[in-house]
Design goal:
The structure holds two protein chains of two kinds. By secondary structure, chain A is α+β, with helices and mostly antiparallel strands. Chain A folds into two domains: 67 residues; 133 residues, Cupredoxins -  blue copper proteins (Immunoglobulin-like), CATH 2.60.40. Chain A has three helices and ten strands. Chain A has a five-stranded mixed β-sheet, with no helix packed on it. In chain A, a hairpin with a 4-residue loop joins strand 6 and strand 7. In chain A, 19% of the residues are buried. By secondary structure, chain B is mainly alpha-helical. Chain B contains two helices and two strands. Chain B has a two-stranded antiparallel sheet. The radius of gyration of chain B is 25 Å and the shape is elongated. The two termini of chain B are 47 Å apart. The mean pLDDT of chain B is 84. Chain A: Belongs to the cytochrome c oxidase subunit 2 family.
Chain lengths: 228, 117
């Protein structure tokens, strides 16, 4: 989860997010060098005392500043498109969960199992309880098995919402009357936090999401308890 | 190309909350870039005594060397990472199938070598 003054991406919890972080680093390096070049050009122009009153064009210069950015964009586009199509691949999900956004909570349905549905409300913050995260904790966690490919179908019951887990690199809009599909694989155990990412009314900031990633055995035990 | 698994212990360098020393190829790219910019600019100045152009040469070589090393290193690193991932998957499968009928190495199996086809 995000802590104070964290301006970066969260540590990845899925292979896709890991690839997104690598792409971010790659693109950030290119952007940083472009910024350095532009600042250098600006500084050179400011301190330059030479003037050419009759300069109207510079064919070579214009050719360079057309071709070089195109080449730079190619170096950005190639990994970007690769990642875009990688994110859309589906590798035989072992289960499907449905997420429905409401004002102002999320409800989850594990339709592959019998009678496994629950709502997830934000846990109100207790000022003296230092062990909970303000505005991020929920009463029921979405428990999922790790190292398993999972499909999630997101929709909403009333207004637009958005189901987001930054550490998985997922953001899926919850639109009433529409089913949006996403998929992911969690590669480590733990708690993954997210928040609603589409303005949906007064308590838009107070409908978080918590995924609890557990081993397959623990997940089966949890499902058994819930199904009873 | 120098490997990213250096023996030198990398100090953590935090920029906007991110430890950039953990980014593969970052440290070496900037090291080589800054060195080449400094050397290139200084060499040009030593031969021509033209400070303005020497600065341009230094900066240009910094940008070109940094970007070239970065692209080359990241490409090699991503190929290596893919190979490592394949190797890990194979090792996992091998550990899972060891001793079963799917074990291709036939480890622990008692075999009649003389009568084998």
């Amino acid at each position: 989860m995000t802590t104070w003054s964290c301006m970066n991406l969260q540590d990845s919890a899925s292979p896709i997010m890991e690839q997104l972080i690598f792409f971010h680093d790659h693109t950030m390096m290119i952007i940083t060098m472009i910024l350095a070049m532009v600042l250098y050009f600006m500084a050179s122009t400011i301190i330059n005392e030479l003037v050419d009153r009759y300069m109207l064009e510079g064919q070579t210069m214009e050719l360079m500043w057309t071709i070089v950015p195109a080449v730079i964009l190619l170096f950005i586009t190639t990994p970007s498109l690769r990642l875009l199509y990688l994110m859309d691949e589906i590798h035989n999900p072992i289960m499907t969960i449905k997420t429905i956004g409401h004002q102002w909570y999320w409800s989850y349905e594990y339709s592959d199992f019998v009678n496994v549905e629950f709502d997830s409300y934000m846990t109100p913050y207790e000022g003296d309880n230092k062990s909970m995260f303000r505005l991020l904790e929920t009463d029921n966690h979405v428990t999922l098995p790790m190292h398993s490919f999972i499909r999630i179908i997101v929709t909403a019951a009333d207004v637009l919402h958005s189901w987001t887990i930054p550490s998985l690199g997922i953001k899926a809009d919850a639109t009433p009357g529409r089913l949006n599909q996403s998929s992911f694989m969690i590669n480590r155990p733990g708690l993954l936090y997210g928040q609603c990412s589409e303005i949906c009314g007064a308590n838009h900031s107070f409908m978080p999401i918590v995924i609890e990633s557990v081993s397959t055995e623990n997940f089966i035990e949890w499902i058994k308890k819930l199904s009873e | 190309m120098s490997k990213e698994t250096d023996d030198v212990e990398k100090k953590s360098v935090i920029i906007f909350g991110r430890d950039v020393s953990t980014i593969p190829c970052f440290r070496n790219s900037f090291l080589y870039g800054i060195e080449s910019g400094f050397v290139g600019g200084l060499t040009y100045f030593l031969f021509t005594s033209n400070t303005r152009v020497a600065t341009h040469v230094g900066f240009t070589s910094f940008v070109i060397v940094t970007m070239s090393y970065w692209f080359h290193c990241r490409w090699q690193w991503s190929k290596e990472k893919f190979t490592h991932g394949q190797l890990q998957a194979v090792m996992k499968k091998h550990a899972m199938y060891e001793g079963t009928d799917y074990d291709l190495t036939h480890k622990g199996e008692v075999r009649d070598v003389k009568n084998e086809p």
